């Protein structure tokens, strides 16, 4: 074959490949433009849908819609009820919107709405508890209580039996359903055979309004778990930053709650606890001994410290297996934001003050000064 013919074939191949490359580029460009258009159109459509869902169902309506929000309802439950009654357009948008805005503390009860309300107006009513009736019961659960103590309060204030409450919160099948329903705060850690009461520490200390004459135990438990979830959700990133699981954070917060009486003390004691854990020293906190014993005592004896229990922090060089009481929000804040110090020891004097020290020698000197 002549050089001229070879050159001609080469040139034809080059032109062919060039045309193929241009065709491929055109196809790729068309695909990319199509994908971008799909994303843009989808985004605009989604935005318009969400914007529409946040607006009133019927801006001109003046008709009253009576709605009952049962005690223990989650934001998902409330959204479904409101959509079904025609108060809002979309329950899913309501649920995501309340989570995005970190809205919680919705009040159970009977409400009067209209379909002319925006979602923000509905949320405000639910938060303020603008209901048609006063609560039948108002019950305050203080910080630092065990499930057993809380069951006693409910039995005293409500038409339920203490034993029935305790039996229900210890019922394995029920606890498993709660783990499925509250996966952000409850884990299988609470199902350990060594855990005394699975929901210990997870029933939040607060004042609760109850609008039913005979509320169920399930409704009470879920009302409290909703409050716990609302509080913990604000601190999830901080808990992770402290390299804690939710269960560990709740456990530590319960120890801080039992050992301290003020916000300043809580942060200092949390710092001491972390210092001990860092050097592999047992936490050695007396409230865990009392919880392991299952009784209240004014003074923990040396023989009490010997009890072999995964709750006894004289026996285990780690956090106890689970919480020993419920906690207040300030104890949780101290848990995720402890005071930095070199203190390893602390002791309470008879006036409620706490004295800290870096060495055992200093600690013993403080004992001689402040404890008779």
What is the helical fraction, as a range of percent?
40-55%
Low-confidence stretches: none
Distance between the termini: 115 Å
Q: What strand line-up does the widest sheet have?
A: 1-2
Largest sheet: 2 strands, antiparallel
Oligomer: single chain
Number of helices: 14
Order of helices and strands: HEHHEHEHHHEHHHHHHEEH
The total tally of domains equals 4
Radius of gyration: 30 Å
Question: Shape, please?
Answer: globular
Average pLDDT taken over every residue: 85
Q: How much of the sequence is in beta strands?
A: 5-15%
SS content category? mainly alpha
Q: What is the number of strand segments? A: 6
Could you list some keywords that capture this structure?
4 domains, globular, mainly alpha, two-stranded antiparallel sheet, 372 residues, 14 helices, Dna Ligase, domain 1, 6 strands
Task: List the SSEs and their pairings.
Elements: H1 3-54, E1 65-69, H2 75-84, H3 91-100, E2 109-113, H4 119-128, E3 137-140, H5 147-157, H6 162-169, H7 172-181, E4 207-210, H8 217-233, H9 236-241, H10 246-259, H11 263-278, H12 286-293, H13 329-336, E5 345-348, E6 354-357, H14 360-370
Antiparallel strand pairs: 1-2, 3-4, 5-6
Helix pairs in contact: 2-3, 5-6, 10-11, 10-13, 11-13
């Amino acid at each position: 074959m002549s050089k001229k013919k070879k050159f001609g074939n080469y040139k034809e191949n080059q032109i062919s490949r060039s045309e193929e490359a241009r065709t491929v580029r055109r196809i790729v460009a068309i695909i990319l433009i199509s994908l971008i258009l799909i994303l843009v159109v989808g985004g605009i459509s989604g935005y318009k849908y969400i914007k529409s869902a946040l607006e009133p169902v019927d801006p001109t309506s003046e008709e009253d819609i009576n709605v009952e929000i049962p005690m223990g309802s989650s934001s998902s439950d409330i959204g479904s009820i409101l959509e079904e009654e025609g108060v809002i357009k979309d329950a899913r948008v309501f649920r995501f919107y309340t989570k995005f805005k970190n809205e919680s503390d919705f009040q159970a009860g009977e409400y009067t709405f209209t379909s002319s309300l925006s979602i923000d107006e509905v949320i405000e009513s639910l938060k303020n508890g603008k209901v048609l009736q006063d609560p039948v019961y108002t019950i305050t659960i203080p910080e630092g209580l065990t499930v057993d103590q809380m069951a006693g309060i409910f039995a005293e204030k409500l038409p339920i039996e203490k034993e029935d409450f305790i039996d229900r919160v210890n019922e394995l099948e029920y606890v498993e359903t709660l783990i499925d329903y509250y996966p952000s705060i409850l884990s299988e850690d609470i199902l350990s055979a060594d855990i005394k009461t699975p929901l210990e520490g997870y029933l939040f200390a607060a004042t609760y309004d109850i609008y039913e004459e005979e509320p169920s135990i399930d409704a009470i438990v879920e009302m409290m778990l909703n409050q716990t979830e609302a509080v913990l959700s604000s601190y999830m990133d901080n808990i992770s930053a402290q390299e804690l699981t939710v269960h560990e954070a709740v456990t530590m917060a319960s120890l801080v709650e039992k050992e301290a009486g003020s916000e300043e003390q809580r942060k200092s004691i949390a710092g001491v606890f972390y210092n001990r854990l860092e050097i592999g020293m047992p936490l050695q906190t007396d409230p865990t001994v009392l919880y392991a014993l299952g009784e209240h005592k004014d003074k923990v004896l040396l023989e009490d410290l010997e009890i072999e229990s995964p709750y006894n922090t004289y026996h285990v060089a780690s956090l106890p297996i689970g919480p020993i009481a419920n906690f207040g929000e300030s104890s949780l804040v101290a848990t995720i934001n402890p005071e930095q110090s070199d203190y390893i020891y602390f002791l309470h004097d008879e006036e409620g003050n706490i004295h800290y020290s870096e060495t055992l020698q200093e600690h013993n000197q403080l004992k001689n000064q402040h404890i008779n």
